[in-house]
Amino acid sequence: MKLAFSTVACPEWTMEQVVSFASSSEFDGVELRTFGFGSSSIACDPAHTAASKLREALEGAGVTPCSLGTGCRFDEPIFPPVIGRVITDIDRSVRDAKSIIHMAAALDVPFVRVFGFEYREGDNTKLAERRVVERLSTVVDAARNTGVKIVLENGGSFPMASDIARVIAEVDHPLLGASYSPGAAIGTGESPIDGVNALADRLWMVKLKDVRSGVPCPIGEGTLGCEGLVRHLSSNRFSGWVVVEWDRLWMPELGEPGAVLAEAASRLRQWSATPSDRALSGSALR
To answer: Which of 105, 127, 185, 252 is geometrically suited to a Cys-Cys bond with 190, CB 3.0 to 4.6 A?
Structure first.
């Protein structure tokens, strides 16, 4: 597996700081959170930098941008049900996602992360899910011939692995896979190992965080079973990305990211080492 961290951990860092930290850490890459062109939500949004300049900086530092993390969601209601398709802007989320796909292609980023996301009160859930599937299908089609794939992450009204697996199966496109966040499934009772097993070969990315008493804490110090999950992924030869999240973007009171991320990378390296790796490491110390 390959290890990365999400820039939700460091919203105040410049892109130069992100690249410098990533290149000197044990991570293989970074997920760049973006709010799209024109946003000033975070200092290290890739939309702030010319694609050619950023791509050159990443390549020069040996840092792989594994994904553009977005808040794109495809749950907007159509109201009134029929004429609403004519009088309301029902395709804004699709246009936003297409714009991010173009950004990813320019940066040579392989994945764009999106969501479903949430049913409204009174929604017919089958029709609401159909809206998500239709819009997501359009977005995935737009990724053809770009070198970019779409990963659908669980959350909202699609909290479990089985929920996003169902949507992925309905879209039925080779450019659509899953980004699984055990933290988003925590309230459902779903085992993280059961979650990754349910997604099988459509699992392209795992988002990893930990919580203790409902509050984010360093990975390995909480109750989400991170160590067991990483060892399970390693033993099953998972070759996708494991992305560490430290939610300072949403919770600025959390501790500074540098030490937290460095410790997370060290633990993940230890947990994901194969028995032969650990034997070699031990013999080198003797």
So the answer is: 185
